[in-house]
Amino acid sequence: xxxxxxxxxxxxxxxxxxxxxxxxxxxxxxxxxxxxxxxxxxxxxxxxxxxxxxxxxxxxxxxxxxxxxxxxxxxxxxxxxxxxxxxxxxxxxxxxxxxxxxxxxxxxxxxxxxxxxxxxxxxxxxx
Length: 127
Description:
Layout lengths: L10 H4 L1 E6 L2 E7 L14 H16 L4 E10 L8 E12 L2 E10 L2 E12 L7
Antiparallel strand pairs: 1-2, 2-4, 3-6, 4-5, 5-6
């Protein structure tokens, strides 16, 4: 399936799509040194959130999708060198509103989970 949104996103910082289907996406991210916040190699949560957000956007896969709200939980730390995969599924559609569930996994461990409220607008949010 062709990705219709977020065409110029930085894959190094937000992830690389592995699979996209109707209402579903899987996106991989390798944590790199520029994501670290300290000498221990702890990755800033914003990069994990960005990965999850990107997975949600391409699960909806509309050129005019935008994020309205998110309820998230960070469950494990991510370190430089970790490879994580976000899996997103559209749970419901109600008019322009989409509810998307996202889990970010490191192997079999969940490191992040969230529900993203997305909106498909008639035109681009900045248009």
